[in-house]
Batch of 2 targets.
Target 1
Amino acid sequence: MKVLIAEDDDRLARAVAAGLRRRHMVVDVALNGDDALDRLAATAYDVVVLDRDMPGVHGDEICRRLAADRSASRILMLTAARSVQDRVEGLGLGADDYLPKPFDFSELIARVRALARRPGLPPPGRLGFGDLAVDPERRAVTRAGRKLTLTPKEFAVLEYLLTADGRPVPAEELLLRVWDEAADPFTTTVKTTVGRLRAKLGDPPVIETVRESGYRIGG
Amino acid sequence: MKVLIAEDDDRLARAVAAGLRRRHMVVDVALNGDDALDRLAATAYDVVVLDRDMPGVHGDEICRRLAADRSASRILMLTAARSVQDRVEGLGLGADDYLPKPFDFSELIARVRALARRPGLPPPGRLGFGDLAVDPERRAVTRAGRKLTLTPKEFAVLEYLLTADGRPVPAEELLLRVWDEAADPFTTTVKTTVGRLRAKLGDPPVIETVRESGYRIGG
DNA sequence: AAACGAGGTGACAGGCAGGTGACAGCTGTC
DNA sequence: GACAGCTGTCACCTGCCTGTCACCTCGTTT
């Protein structure tokens, strides 16, 4: 679950990002409108938390462009004013939800989660393949009944591959969706993490490599 | 068990809060309607004791919003008038119970407890995991037959983790549900309390840490 | 068969989430 | 008012994760 926070107030942005990361979301931050557009062009975000008033490109404009592109990202618009007028305007521009500042922190979190859930089918209670079972809610993984202990990154990668449902996932996509913006695209991190994950999952292999195309679960 | 008291009479609110705390409930107080809404947005309360006539947002309005949000909180409505008409109106708005002022103090307590019990599957007479047994009613904890003496906070944390049923509970959630509004989100309190609890529970460990996700019982 | 490039592995180090022990303030009790 | 137990805070410690690097393997290309 990947989220972009477009908000020029540095402190606020950081706080929100930290809160969402705690809920296992992958969060990028853009401190102005141009930066936000760049990131939106580069990555498919599930949810965009969008401050309406930003230096550079205005939030409304970003909203409009996303709508024009038929982006699948859902938009939560933040705004200083709290008039009904604003609300109507915001939603008219294509925002999916709207929150007036000052807002309650946990309400923001709750709304982002609600938006994150919206389109995708309800979060599958269990994921799995063969004798491998993953319970995202409990963060538990078992193989042939044996409990496995995965690190957060390993778990995230496995979860992502399982939801990709047999499609090969390129390392680049994993970097975009499981790592955050700080990830260096020229590193060997993904290779290493997948390697460690494979070692923990044991035999027979679950994750197979499709040359030039990425990793996939099963065959 | 977390309760919000929304009541503009300061003295009454304090008295009720103290009574409920003595019964081991975690109690927040809101002295007006706006404050109540803020708190309701921030925390999932099990029961809301709601004064009908409050400055700011009216109790009826709060009731309506909770119903609209499909909140799981149960509502005990307090009102000055005692006509049957009022009772009907209150329940019509979505309140779960209704108590006319002046009321008998212990009756209020009893009704809150009744509501607190209501939805959750029948109050598990006993909670436990492995050789650990917890009796919420008697506040008794035994490990392998040996009686343990826990402090109130320790007991509350253990009880909450047990009812979470294997799901990892983040420290932040514990802060919200086991501590009251005075809790500072940036402290190390939860860590410390869990540490003390672990020490008392002894070996083998019962509470396991899931990095980035919180604490969980067993697994 | 030599060169090449994609992917795999093991070792290492820094950072950070989480754990601990000591201490002090508060509250309720005798 | 003295005392004891409970809790929150602080400073410090620790061990695990994770990114990086150097090097290896193996299939493909020329």
Target 2
Amino acid sequence: MRTLGYAVLGLLAAEPLTGYQVSRRMARPIGYLWTARHSQIYPELRSLEQAGLVRHRVEDGRGPRDTKRYWITGKGKNALRSWVASPLEPPESKSELMLRVRALWLVSPTVARELIEAARDRHVQRRAAYAVEEATFGDPGLLAFDSAAFSSYATLRCGIGHEDQAVGWCDWLLARIPRG
Amino acid sequence: MRTLGYAVLGLLAAEPLTGYQVSRRMARPIGYLWTARHSQIYPELRSLEQAGLVRHRVEDGRGPRDTKRYWITGKGKNALRSWVASPLEPPESKSELMLRVRALWLVSPTVARELIEAARDRHVQRRAAYAVEEATFGDPGLLAFDSAAFSSYATLRCGIGHEDQAVGWCDWLLARIPRG
DNA sequence: TCGCGATATGTAAGTTTCGACATAATCACT
DNA sequence: AGTGATTATGTCGAAACTTACATATCGCGA
């Protein structure tokens, strides 16, 4: 099975969700870890169901079609568990910003400065969004290791560290771009 | 044009390369920013040439076919420059590790510890590889802003910061996983 | 000298992901 | 009363990417 399937299972492990709710969750904050459009989610849920990893029940339909609420099955939870424990491939890490920075010597200092300042702004904004989220956890020291909240908090911590590092790097670079 | 095309143009902007050399460069260190298999590179070079952004000359063939060396054209350099200056979409950031961490509450502390320790090891190793690369730059303070070397060094700095942050986060998490 | 790996370039088939299209109810605002 | 955003679920074709297949030469160690 592919990663998207496990991303969906990971969401359903915490609570039953409709396809629409899954695709909303894949935007933020799960979207900072893995993203998918709704056009991927709905087929994925069907194939997970065919594999016996999730099941659905039809509820009242607010849109043009019926609303289907999905639950994870015991088999699905086991699949998720063995995936977490399975060997992890080295991350692919595609960064369009870094690719552009590699070509920075071709453009003027002004253009370079604009690029890095825009990137810095976005990192500051996301860092602020993370800070808001962090506040909802209360005292993180009280979270039990085997709670879903602690797992979420751990990923949030990584996100915060990542944004802080990125902002610091932008400042480092901006200090080295000559002012026109 | 898509990002892969600009990644290739970025490499050719510094020096003429064969398709094979481009695919080697896309492994490391460019691979930490963007990756592609050779089966993507060769068709991409052809389509870049059709668009007039690169040109090739046939040289001696060591393999079963002719060796083609590619140069970037003036048009290609301009395309690369405007791409660097164009508005940047927010990064997609897919992290399978974070996805697994989000499901960490489902597995035993022992399994969790193994996952994070393995991840930590890989970050330490890559950090060491970066340190070796950094040493090849000599005194970074001497690099001119408009040199390809400075651009490379800037991305390397970001990579180093990223790995350091990741190792720190792994240690933070490991300290919070109960010992079995 | 025999096999193995690296060099070197490509094609073909399959999978995954994206972007656009499609539909319709409900709710808030004007 | 009408307009538009949000909720809600899906299909379809295209683009991007991966994996496997295909081929041939050179250098190196066993």
